[in-house]
Amino acid sequence: MKPEAAGRIDTLFREKKREGKTALILYLTAGYPDLETTEALIPELEQAGADLIELGVPFSDPIADGPTIQKASTLSINAGATLKKIMALVKRLRTKTRIPILLFSAFNPIWKHGLEKTVTDCARIGIDGLLVPDLPPEEADDLISLCEGKNLSHVFLIAPTTPLDRARRIAGKCTGFIYYISTKGVTGARKNLDGTITPHLRELKNLTSKPVAVGFGISKPEHVRALKKSAEGVVVGSALIREVQAGKNLQDRIRRAVRFTRKLAGAL
């Protein structure tokens, strides 16, 4: 029998629904510019108002990454970040923070580590779910089964170009939340939001009652404010990484990232 899902991600969205609020989800490339910075940032971002962290495993072949995340991944790899080291980092973090953490990784590092071993290790150290952007839901039954066995969320992407019938099937395979890609193209901070986001979200809401988080291109408090009534979560990544990138040292990176996070949280 499939165990009852009651992890941190599910709990977060239940609490947000009860409060009538939207979750602030922040993406960090793990190990950028080094693992020390990632480890120091996450508890500070939680205190500044982040509700969930998407922790990106750096990978050499970008899938949907724009230039900011591509650069962060390359530098992280060059600095020695690996899936094994990232997991060790999360294990240490669990003595400092209870914030939900979703591991965002291409399939290759997971396959190399071992599919079952990855899920088991994630559950053991306190990672709350997996998002594998290059693993189609139609080919993810093994991952889904393993995640369900460990009460981990398994999140999939739905794009503006996804046909409604397929969007319904993808939504049915998601747990935790559904990740809606706000625009065609790759990740990256954008000046303006795509005008089709709200009607597409409305269509998606007609297909499922599961929480929906919107990402790609969301880069400033005005964007967050504009989306908070249409989605259960908003995801900010490249804009946050650019704040980290601008820092002169560890303390300056933390200061910039915390200030930016507070502005985003304030918009919610």
Could you walk me through the main structural features you see in this protein, from its secondary elements to its overall organization?
By secondary structure, this protein is an alpha/beta fold. It has a single domain (8-266), classed as Aldolase class I (TIM Barrel, Alpha-Beta Barrel), CATH 3.20.20. The protein has helices spanning 8-19, 35-48, 67-78, 83-93, 107-113, 115-125, 141-149, 164-173, 197-205, 221-227, 238-246, 250-266; strands spanning 23-29, 52-56, 101-104, 129-131, 153-155, 157-158, 178-181, 212-215, 233-236. The protein is globular. Residues 1-5 and 185-189 have low confidence and may be disordered.
Question: What best-fitting shape do the alpha-carbon axes yield?
Answer: globular
The ordered H/E elements are: HEHEHHEHHEHEEHEHEHEHH
Give helix % range. Answer: 40-55%
User: Which ranges are low-confidence, i.e. pLDDT below 50, for 5 or more consecutive residues?
Assistant: 1-5, 185-189
> Mean pLDDT, as a whole number?
91
CATH class: Alpha Beta
Write the layout of secondary structure elements.
Layout: H1 8-19, E1 23-29, H2 35-48, E2 52-56, H3 67-78, H4 83-93, E3 101-104, H5 107-113, H6 115-125, E4 129-131, H7 141-149, E5 153-155, E6 157-158, H8 164-173, E7 178-181, H9 197-205, E8 212-215, H10 221-227, E9 233-236, H11 238-246, H12 250-266
Parallel strand pairs: 1-2, 1-9, 2-3, 3-4, 4-5, 6-7, 7-8, 8-9
What features would you highlight for this structure?
268 residues, alpha/beta, TIM Barrel, nine-stranded parallel sheet, 48% helix, disordered N terminus
